[in-house]
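WARN retry 2 of 3 for item q-0093 after timeout on previous attempt; input resubmitted unchanged.
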Amino acid sequence: MADSAAAVVIFQESLKWLLESIKNSKKFSAAGLIFDSSRKGWTPPLREINRRSLELGRPLEELVEKLIRETEKESQQLSSKNTWRKSYSFPASLDKLQENDDSLVSDLKKRDVLEILCKQTRIGNGIQMKGLCGAPESPEFTVGLDRPLNNLKFELLKDGVSILNLTGFGGSGKTTLARKLCRDDDIRGKFKENIMFVVFSKSPNLKIIVEKLFQHWGFQAPEFQSDESAVSGLELLLKEIGTSPKLLVLDDVWVGSESLVDKFKFQIPDYKILVTSRVAFPRFGTPCHLKPLSHDDALTLFRRFALQNDNTSNIPDDMLQQVVRGCRGSPLALNVVGGSLRGQPIELWQEMLKEWSHGHSILDSNNELLTRLQNSLNLLDDKLHIKECFMDFALFPEDQRIPVAALVDMWAELYKLDEDGIDAMANIYKLTTRNLANLVVTKEIAGDMNNNYKVYNNHFLLQHDLLRELAIHQSSQESFQRRERLILEINKNSCPEWWRQHRQQGLVSRILSLYSQWGIQQKQQVAARAISITTDEMIIPDWCNIQAAEAEVLVLNLRTKKYTLPEFMENMKKLKVLVLTNCGFHPSELNNFQLLGSLSNLKKIRLEKVSVPLLCKLKNLKKLSLYMCNINQAFESCSIPISDALPNLVELNIDYCKDLVELPAKLCDIIPLKKISISNCHKLSALPQEIGKLENLELLRLNSCTDLEELPDSTGKLHNLRFLDISNCISLNKLPEDIGNLNNLENLNMMGCLRCELPVSVLNLKHLKGVICDEETAASWEPFQPMLPQLRIEVPKVDINLNWLSGA
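OK item q-0093 returned
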């Protein structure tokens, strides 16, 4: 019934203009007569549409009669409301109205209504109409898309109105999958010819899109005066073209166009919308993410692009494997690189692999790939330093999880984001919805009801290697001395050839003299605010001789059993954050740790998977985070009192440290401490009685310390404590009798403490606002609830996830 929809829209647009003209004219009665005459002029073509539609077996009589009745009604109302007494002036206006009205009637009569009907007749005879927005041809060859295709089909073949979001970073195959979907037999079996495919792009024009949809159905669209009229026309079109299911594909929707997509949502049975975008839009439901191809699928696709199924190629299989691994499972990279190597001699293949082995990026010699990936950065705005945050991901090593807690520390200093991580997580969510990273939460730890004490120690980011290379490439556009981020990778797999040769010969002095070949001069000053150094078995203490006086963040990534902090750190007087991560399996032994004592501005240290050495005096350190470390030596064998080594420590985080059996009593001499968070230290059995000395402590988290049997009685002296987390401390059987003395306690998390008894003193917790617990413990709290007017008890759903047991 597309023909009727066209006539309806054309008729209504003309009628709308005419009615407005009549209402604004002072020749009301005469105008009404003209209108009545015009209506009679419109009737024959409408009836002709009806007659021809009957021939096609698609009756429109009811619709046409309704339009005629509405027209007559409008005419009668106008004629009855206006008398000859009002028709006394403006004859020129009447003449213009008559002229415009004649033009409208003539224009309507000249519409290609019969031609449209003839097209519909030809369609009925088996000739398909290919409109501007018809389903595109299916791609000739695809691999690795069967699972996401089946997931989308499952949703689209279900009954009801819905909108789906297919998302992935640039070049991941979204449009390819959408095209394949439109030509799928099951999809075409349901939606038949009612499949519309519209490319949205960066700056969509709604009126133009609607006009194209009208043309897709075979007729000229009206000239819409506004987006609202275009939307109304489209809704009418979709309702009148039949009752069959309809699928609208909106391809390449950019961030900021969500509200425009909403305008295409209509309450029409079995009408579905598929949105493809580099952005995951939560408002459109759970998105379908396209993941990188597996190695086997990537190899198959690469052969298609590079060899054109030429089985006689002289390119060795191991060389093909290496190139495919370098493309990181990206269909775009496989296409671009494969196309560039197609038909080329083997020497060019060898040259490219040699460059990659020497640390050159795949983006260095592929401008097309670089340009396509750079478009992803166009999705990022400048608010809250989102692009800079994306670039900072490259400070962490390839194929490794990026700890969100480290990013929170870094960004608080570099960009003045809040210390609690709210701004940082907002940026991370924006980056993950744009498919520029993936967020992995190994274990969710509840905070208070307002999330003021939420921690991110179990939050990690994963980034596709091509996106990391994009960030590195962007960072390297400035000269070595002027870069905001300096990223150095020295290891046996990627260090320059000259470094390997001279290192093997043991000629350290010649190595230093050759820095200029790598862009580093001796005593070379750099302006970078963030520096990342990745090494493996580097054992030369003075291997690098740069001066980084402006550096505020240093990220050290190592893969070695022993590591010596480089001497040049001593001159990093502005250093505020140190993140040191051992990417190996066993904890690494640190040497030269006392060097940190000379850094007066060092505020935050995060150590991961290292044996923490004897503490030196870190007089301005505010935050110390130890993740999967051996820590006994640091606390028990310290040559100076811990309170002297860390006199201004405000926050201490200890996670997954297997050798922590008892928290050292000397820690309780650090009076400035406000936050102590200990999680997944399963051997921790006791806290010191001296903990009551921490008069400034606001947060005490003892999460998943499964051997902890009791809290010391002195816990009741922590009068400033606002948040207490003893969740999953399964051996804890009671709370201290003096727990009621915690006058300022607002939130208590005791999820998983099934055996924990409540003392009567909990009645004194007048400021307690929230308790997070299981159902059995909630029943124990219910008798006290009437006496605690602010208390709200929350019983969250249990997430059965055992990843936390291994610290994964």
